[in-house]
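User: What would this chain look like folded?
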Amino acid sequence: MEQLVKADIFFFISSIATVIISILVIILLIYLISAAKNLYKISKIIKNTVKIGSAEFVTDIKEYLENNIIFRLFFPPARKKNRVMNDINREN
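Assistant: Here's the prediction, encoded as structure tokens.
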């Protein structure tokens, strides 16, 4: 009889934990979906801005990304550019 009570307590606690975890996962998914919608809207706005003819916008973003440390960490400058720059500096 005592084992039956322990088993009931275990299943009660595990079912409550399952419900709580499920609710947390649902809340997380709702936040992720809303963030994805916002990202989609932002990308549409940026795409429309670029289509309108904002070459300055593209060059500003390019300069910003070239100076960004994290961007350079994932996408280091090409070696070919360094060789060309060294050749130009030697000529001067």
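The mean pLDDT is 80. If you want, I can go into more detail on any region.
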